[in-house]
Amino acid sequence: MYVHRPDGPTCAPPAALAPSPPVLAGRRIGILDNRKPNANVLLNRLADRLARRTGAEVTLVEVKNAAVPCEDQVLGRLVEEVELVLTGTAD
Question: What pLDDT sits at residue 81?
């Protein structure tokens, strides 16, 4: 039997999001496409519009399978080559 204290957390707190850069001009944008239907259309249009509005540049597009976690090699490229990553799902 497990007894949980009513005055304390029962799990680890959620991870905090990384801070957003204050200015995107000159920054490199990456796209992580999960191959869901229309995800590539949504992410590419969003990235293109964001780049035009802010002076950033889309420099990297990576693709992963939505059913499995992202490979370490893909995450490593994103970390090394871009300052902002757009990802999401669409059906």
Answer: 96
Mean pLDDT, the chain, whole residue set: 88
Is 83 inside any structural domain? yes
Q: What is the 3-state secondary structure of 23-84?
A: CCCCCEEEEEECCCCCHHHHHHHHHHHHHHHHCCEEEEEEECCCCCCCCHHHHHHHHHHCCE
**Residue 72 pLDDT more than 90?**
yes
Nearest to 62 by CA among 41, 77, 52, 50: 77
pLDDT at 73 over 90: yes
Domain containing 77 equals 33-87
In-domain check, residue 5? no
Number of structural domains (the chain) is 1
